[in-house]
Write a structure and sequence with these properties.
This protein is of the alpha/beta class. It has 9 helices and 14 strands. The relative contact order is 0.18.
Length: 270
């Protein structure tokens, strides 16, 4: 088993439990990894706010990869390292169509999510400080958005029907009966962002441990030397990788880190 130099962790459904907390055992495993000289990076579909907060809490030693890989942020220096937005020639007609037809969407611009006034609130974090309401998306169209979220089956189906042939990266996810599609630049993605970060630190993919639970994690898991799916992941995600750990409510991250990252180091220095 190769020694691991970097651990890449998804957040929701992976590092975070069902109550959006990092368990004590997960914290201990991450601390032990850091003390062993292993770098740890968060790779998430979320915007900047939560991954930066958790990175501070865990005293992580790498930038955060956010927005499904479209944004890499050095949170220590509060500096954007990589930003790959959706080109305006594609974003503008999508936003115009969504507003005209009353589709439920959210747009991420300048590290805030924007939704139209009166939009449906699908999840608790949509009322948090990272979200803003506006009267029209036309207010945002002077700048290319980092990514666009189509929320709910109706919005996802309409987007797929009207814009599915655009040369963009479409990341489809389902949680129970809820469907969502994140629309990114075709050059943006978790795997691409992680590969870029590893190249910067001269870390070969064979020495990367990546853990995730969602469809958007699969390319990252398959690219990494050791890719681990969570026990709570969709069946198609589990079948796409060789290794499956416990669920996010059963310390699945800690179990994988202990086995695939910490154990080889213990053997090396025993």
């Amino acid at each position: 088993m190769p020694l691991i130099d970097l651990i890449a962790l998804d957040l929701d459904g992976t590092l975070l439990d069902s109550n959006e907390h990092v368990s004590a055992r997960n914290r201990r495993a991450i601390k032990a990894a850091l003390e062993s000289g292993i770098r740890v990076v968060l790779v998430t579909g979320r915007g900047v706010d939560m991954p930066v907060r958790i990175s501070h809490e865990l005293e992580l030693n790498l930038p955060v990869i956010c927005c499904h890989g479209a944004l890499t942020k050095d949170f220590g220096a509060n500096r954007t390292l990589v930003h790959i937005p959706v080109p305006l020639p594609y974003a503008k007609p999508m936003l115009d169509y969504a507003e005209k037809h009353g589709l439920q969407i959210a747009v991420y611009v300048e590290e805030f999510f924007y939704r139209l006034t009166g939009s449906t609130i699908y999840m608790a974090d949509m009322t948090g400080p990272a979200w803003k309401e506006i009267a029209s998306f036309k207010e945002l169209l002077s700048e290319a958005p980092t990514f666009i979220r189509f929320l709910g089956a109706e919005a996802v189906e309409a987007m797929d029907r009207e814009f599915g042939d655009y040369p963009l990266n479409f990341r489809y996810e389902t949680w129970g009966n809820f469907a969502e599609c994140a629309v990114l630049s075709r050059d943006a993605g978790k795997q691409q962002a992680l590969a870029r970060l590893c190249a910067d630190f001269q870390i070969p993919r064979e020495r990367v441990l990546a853990i995730g639970d969602s469809r958007n994690d699969v390319p990252m898991l398959q690219w990494s030397g050791i890719g681990v799916a969570m026990g709570n992941a969709l069946a198609e995600v589990k079948s796409a990788v060789r290794i499956v750990t416990a669920t996010n409510d059963q310390d699945g991250v800690a179990l994988a880190v202990e086995r695939y990252a910490l154990a080889p180091y213990k053997k090396k220095f025993a």
